[in-house]
Design goal:
Layout: E1 11-18, E2 21-28, E3 37-43, E4 49-55, E5 60-63, H1 67-84, E6 89-95, H2 105-121, H3 127-134, H4 142-149, E7 152-155, E8 169-173, E9 180-186, H5 194-203, H6 209-228, H7 232-254, H8 261-273, E10 277-280, E11 287-291, H9 294-307, E12 314-319, E13 327-332
Parallel strand pairs: 5-6
Antiparallel strand pairs: 1-4, 1-13, 2-3, 3-7, 4-6, 7-8, 9-11, 9-12, 10-11
Amino acid sequence: MPLQFRRLPPHTAVTIDAPARLHLGFLDPNASLGRAFGSLGLVIDAHGTRLEARVAQREEIDGAVTDTERERIALCLAKLQAAYGPVTVAIHVAHAPRAHTGLGSGTQLALAVGTAFVRLLGHTASSAELASLLGRGARSGVGILGFDCGGLLLDGGPAGDLRQSVPPLLARQAFPDEWRVLLVSDHAREGLHGAQERRALASLAPFPQRLAAHLCHLVLMRILPGAAEHDFAPFAEGLTEMQQIIGEYFASAQGGVFASPDVERVLRAVAAERTAGIGQTSWGPTGFAIVASAREADRALATAREAARAMPHIECAIVAGRNNGAAIRCAESRTRRSDAA
């Protein structure tokens, strides 16, 4: 039987712009200090997902999606219909990042579909509720939290059953407007996911308790304070050290500190010439270098492109942080209006 929810005026069409995120590292991958994972993440202003949903006579899923993503959307719709009630929806994906590149595309897509669906019915549901229903946020909550509020985010890891618990938000800092992020992407690779990811995690040795404690210290006493005070050096140095520790731990599963040796080569060249916070988002293959200004970003981009000159599969681009969450625009049956969330 469909669940009963407080109703709002239903909409005939909904457009969702969901932001991408960088996963900057776990604090404790296997609960050496008592609680698993804990994630640091940053929402960015590019590579997001935009979809348009409307009530229709027959279900349609089209646009910038692969067959696998189309199947994933159909599964999301089936779960939503079982929970909230039957409604036939047509979904057009205007744009979406390539899957399994470390940008959180799966969570973006699921939350965008879920949010559009409940808005079309006139229901209310939190992002955490939708994520639990749609199977997102089992380890990291930064994509879910970023959908709500953007910024530099720290979550506390899931409690109990990983299938049911969405990690809580512990801290949020606005990402400084003047800082920039160089993204370096390897289009010849994709990050571990699905059964491969589960096997990789299971193969790893226990994470040392002393390193988990050190990562917590880096985040709480260098990275987050650096962002809060716009003090770039401790932020960048702390983040690079955190990424090196996490990368060494996952090296046996992903083939090195970075999943892509070419991305690593480019980022090391960038960091050799300036202070930068470098690392890999999630399982990669996308890497990043955070720098202190737009001018530094232009110089870093030039360095990166020179280092990648003989690597046509490597793409380099500059993005900024994003300090707000998803944009939601709704069209009602008789009048049209815009909502922001």
